[in-house]
Amino acid sequence: MAKEVLKLMGAVFHTEKNLQYGSAAEKLELRNQLVKPKLDKVYDFLTKIKHPMGKLKRAINNALKLKDRLYKIFDNAQLPLDNNPVEQSIRPTTLVRKNSLFATSQNGAKANAMIYTIIQTVKLNNLRIFDYLKYVF
User: What residue stretches are annotated with the Transposase IS66 central domain (predicted)?
Assistant: First the structure.
C-alpha cells in the first residue's frame, strides 16, 4: 500500500516540477489540468484502504485532515506544493538543538553553539567551510 501511495505522490510531484508556464494564471490552469487529477487519485486510493492500523492509520488520517489545505494550491499559484525549502532552512537549527542535548557541560554547549554560529556565517558569505576553518584555526 505504501509503495502505491509513494508512486502516486511521485507522479504528483514530478508533474508539478515539470510544469512550464508564463504567468500565475497559466500555472493555475496547468495545475488544475495536470496535477489535480493525480492528487485526486492519491486521495481516492487513501479513502479505499480498509481498516488501516497503527502508523498507517495515523498517516492516512493526517493526509485526509490536511486535504483542504493542500488543495488551496489549485486556487493560488504562489502556494508551493510542499514546504521543503522551509524545512531544510531550519534543519541545521534542529540538529544543533538535538546535538546540544549531549553536551557534557555548559562550556561544551557554548563551544558547540559558537562553532555552529561560525559555520552558518561562513555559509551565508558563500565561503568554503573547510578552507575557512583551516585558515582561522
Answer: 2-110
List own/partner pairs for 91-96 with CB under 8 A and 24 or more apart. 92/116, 92/120
Is residue 79 in a domain?
Answer: no
The C-alpha R_g of the chain, in whole angstroms, comes to 22
Range of the domain at 95: 84-136
- Cα–chain-centroid distance for residue 24? 22
Same domain, 9 and 50: yes
Residue pair 39/69 in contact (Cβ under 8 Å)? The answer is: no
Q: Which of 57-76 are b and which e, b meaning 16 or more Cβ less than 10 Å from the residue's Cβ?
A: eeebeebeeeeeeeeebeee
Residue whose C-alpha cell reads 492516512 in the numeric block: 60
pLDDT single digits (tens) 80-115: 999 887 787 778 777 777 777 777 888 888 888 888
Residues shown for the chain: 137
